[in-house]
Amino acid sequence: MTEPTTSTAPTDPFSMTAEQAAAQLTAMTSAQSSAGIVDAPKTPEEAGQKLEQLWNDPAWRNRFEAGHSATRQEFEDLLSVRRQSATVEEIAAGRAFAPLFETVGPGELSTADKISAADQLSEFGIPPEGIKHVIGALQPGAKSPFTEADVEWARSNKERLMQTQEWVDRLLKGDYAARHALIGLSAIIAAGAAE
């Protein structure tokens, strides 16, 4: 006697009972989870994974590029969750996204400004840890990682270099090391000393 075979053809969902439909949905959700597919991302990392997953789906990307409103809304919703991670660490590491619109308070830098500053500091060779210190220190209410001695050292070195004609000439010619030194010293001075 032969065992009955299970059909691999899709079942019409309208012919299922409520219990069958629930079981089918549970099985599909379980299959998605085990495949690493993120359904409703709650963290910035999950949103990033979901954005990458969707962008790699040609049908989804075609709908997005064609301006399909639901697809664009899904993108904006995911991007909104992803943007929650615009921490100083992520900005310094170059992994942050600037929001389309942002309201900042007096004395605050927008996320786009912080990302731009981090990019420029990175171009000058400032490592991510240094960028993190500089941007973090510029946040309202943040405590500077620098001491008064650090700031005084930066001021005196910047003043000495600016009075050295050979160094100024190198700076004006775009010398990488001279620009790096000026940016680094200026960043310490701008951050100020911890109180």
State the helical fraction. Answer: 55-70%
Number of domains: 2
The N- and C-terminal alpha carbons lie at a distance of: 86 Å
For the report, how would you describe the main beta sheet? none
Structure, described:
The protein has 195 residues and is mainly α. It has helices at residues 18-34, 44-55, 58-65, 69-83, 88-93, 111-123, 128-137, 148-162, 165-172, 176-191. 62% of the residues lie in helices and 0% in strands. It folds into two domains: 18-85, no CATH class; 109-195, no CATH class.
Please specify the SSE layout and strand pairing:
Elements: H1 18-34, H2 44-55, H3 58-65, H4 69-83, H5 88-93, H6 111-123, H7 128-137, H8 148-162, H9 165-172, H10 176-191
What brief labels describe this structure?
mainly alpha; single chain
